[in-house]
Design goal:
single chain; alpha/beta; TIM Barrel; eight-stranded parallel beta barrel; two-stranded antiparallel sheet
Length: 261
């Protein structure tokens, strides 16, 4: 088992430079967080893949830059706007396939929209994303995110029931806390559907810290997921504000090297 790191940790550094920083720290798994549409063009994507290959690393997931648009452009009733924007997700899925990444992270709709749309409408739209992802051989995954519909475990269970085997989840530790849940409760309830995990540490004072600096029991999480035959990856996702990110990631890598046998 390897623990990787997301290029998002170095935001607002340009994506290719952020990825290079992650790879240069020796991480063998990573997530690419795209930051603008030009980065989805094939020459740019091929350069990212080549850099990962040169470092002997694997890009395991992709995070679209357009998460903030999804409520109005994907999970909303205006059909023409949906048709105009769905191509952006097709490009993300194609980029993920080119990178060899198996998972694409979706935030979805905010919890409270101007118009009260049904869960079924949301699930149907998500199913369309899933089908586009399948054509590229990638999983389209729902992340649990505070202030989004996916903040609710009950919502995620209904989504699982609707999508069946097409339901894949990105489990985020810090987001679980921000949503008011014990992360182990979320992981236990949805362990069989989790395809990708964003990790960070926490303490009573902070919900997002570099791994190894807080009180989160990572060994317990690894045991829980191993017992459920988890086949996905673990990627550190912390924010650059307030941290010397390279130093913290280097220390987190040493922390995991000690506790992972």
């Amino acid at each position: 088992m390897n623990v990787g790191a997301s290029s998002a940790c170095f935001f607002p550094l340009e994506t290719e430079k952020a990825l290079d920083r992650v790879l240069s720290l020796g991480f063998k798994q990573t997530e690419v967080f795209f930051n603008t549409s030009s980065e989805l063009e094939e020459p740019f994507v091929k350069d990212l893949r080549q850099n990962a290959d040169d470092h002997g690393a694997k890009i395991i997931s992709v995070h679209p830059f357009s998460s903030a648009l999804e409520s109005n452009c994907i999970f909303a009733e205006y059909e023409r706007r949906y048709n105009d924007f769905i191509g952006l997700y097709q490009k993300h899925f194609h980029a993920a396939a080119m990178l060899g990444a198996g998972n694409v992270v979706i935030h979805g709709s905010v919890a409270k929209q101007k118009r009260d749309l049904s869960d079924e409408f949301y699930f149907e739209r998500f199913a369309k994303l899933v089908e586009l992802g399948k054509k590229e051989g990638v999983n389209v995954c729902q992340e649990n995110v505070v202030r989004f519909r996916s903040e609710s475990v009950d919502f995620l269970k209904r989504m699982r029931d609707y999508l069946g085997s097409d339901f894949h989840m990105v489990f985020d530790i810090k987001q679980s806390i921000r949503c008011g849940y014990d992360p182990f409760f979320v992981a236990e309830e949805l362990k069989n559907e989790i395809s990708h995990i964003h990790i960070s540490d926490n303490s009573p004072q902070s919900d997002c810290m570099p791994p190894g600096k807080g009180t989160f029991d990572f060994k317990r999480l690894f045991r829980l997921m191993d017992d459920s035959n988890y086949q996905g990856g673990y990627v550190i996702e912390i924010y650059s504000k307030g941290y010397d990110v390279a130093k913290e990631l280097e220390e987190s890598k040493r922390f995991f090297d000690k506790i992972i046998l």
